[in-house]
Amino acid sequence: MGDFSGGRTRRGVLLVVFWMLGLISLSCAARLSVSKQKLQVQKHLNRLNKAAVKSIKSPDGDIVDCVHISHQPAFDHPFLKDHKIQMRPNYHPEGLFDDNKVSDTEKPKQRSNPLTQLWHMNGKCPQGTIPIRRIKEEDVLRASSVKRYGRKKHRAIPQPIPQPRSADPDLMNESGHQHAIAYVEGDKYYGAKATINVWEPKIQQPNEFSLSQLWILGGSFGEDLNSIEAGWQVSPDLYGDNNTRLFTYWTSDAYQATGCYNLLCSGFIQIDSEIAMGASISPVSAYRNPQYDISMLVWKDPKEGHWWLQFGNDYVLGYWPSFLFSYLADSASMIEWGGEVVNSEPDGHHTSTQMGSGHFPEEGFAKSSYFRNIQVVDDSNNLKAPKGLGTFTEQSNCYDVQTGSNGDWGHYFYYGGPGKNPNCP
């Protein structure tokens, strides 16, 4: 018999060599993949982070860049290359500056206090510039992909389930998204306003968020939905911390390919030099302590057709050009106000991510979170009380909403909750 041991040895050596070559090949591929991703991220950061006239370090670790108003991300849009910036709206809604004129006897004993943004402690941006929160590499890397950074996750929209309203809030009935809202529908709306109580809800998982906002909605509940949104949010995934931050969002195709948070894509044109989208709000409300709130107004300019955003009585932040939208180029068909959380637990179970203050509506002022002085803008550009105000929540044992009205707060509601509790699995 011949000696096969030498052949077996050679085959063994060859197998080891091939195995090592395979590992080297995989290692090279992995390094190339990481290198390609880093290049993509860097290119995206170069697009987002515009050259700054001045930079301000915020106490919370943010860097706010003061960017020349004509160099902001909006003007990356091909339709805005020759756009002339409109530095003020042609019209404000009628009644905007006198809707809170009430007698001293009607005023509440506890008035809410003014708010600011943390970065203001270390400086302001000069006139002719706008403040933009600088995006870091780790911000983009937290997203599922470079393309998806700054966008809401695309979700299929099912047929509306039977509810005391025609559609699900945020127009989704996807497991994980929970809401407690008030809404109006059935008319043409040209804007909405609310004063929103500001809290810092606790988020259990880093991929969850909690927000309080108003929605301006147009179109069907399919893939052509138009939405403009503004309010405050806590989103560790988007910002890398648990701070309460001012935010906006828009989409013209149900969150598929258009739109983004804040200034993370071209679209919204900012004109204000003092308020930074996505920057931390300070101070925030605390249980049985002083309460803080912010006033948000979105309305359609009757002359130009753009949708304008105002923060408080003093800050007209900018506008969404009308060409961004299909249905909202005319008017909105639904307005929503309220809270939303993302819950990452499957099969109807809940985490303890809080909405609003984390307390149920029946606890009332300084304990539960509120929206007050909620109004809509009608076709005559008048601010007026909403007619036929409805409410909706998927699971009232987890998050709930209760409406009311009085002389000073007009139409208002308390909302929110703790999520997981003995009555909420």
UniProtKB/TrEMBL annotation:
Signal peptide region: 1-29
Chain intervals with Basic and acidic residues compositional bias: 98-109
Region (Disordered): 90-112
UniProt xrefs under InterPro entries: Glutamic_endopeptidase, Neprosin, Neprosin_propep
Any Pfam family matching the protein: Neprosin_AP
Residue span(s) of domain Neprosin PEP catalytic: 171-425
Keywords: Signal
Gene3D superfamilies: Outer-capsid protein sigma 3, large lobe
Keyword Signal: yes
PANTHER family, A to Z: OS07G0205500 PROTEIN (PTHR31589:SF24), PROTEIN, PUTATIVE (DUF239)-RELATED-RELATED (PTHR31589)
Name under which the protein is recorded: Uncharacterized protein LOC111302796
UniProt organism field: Durio zibethinus
Record gene name: LOC111302796
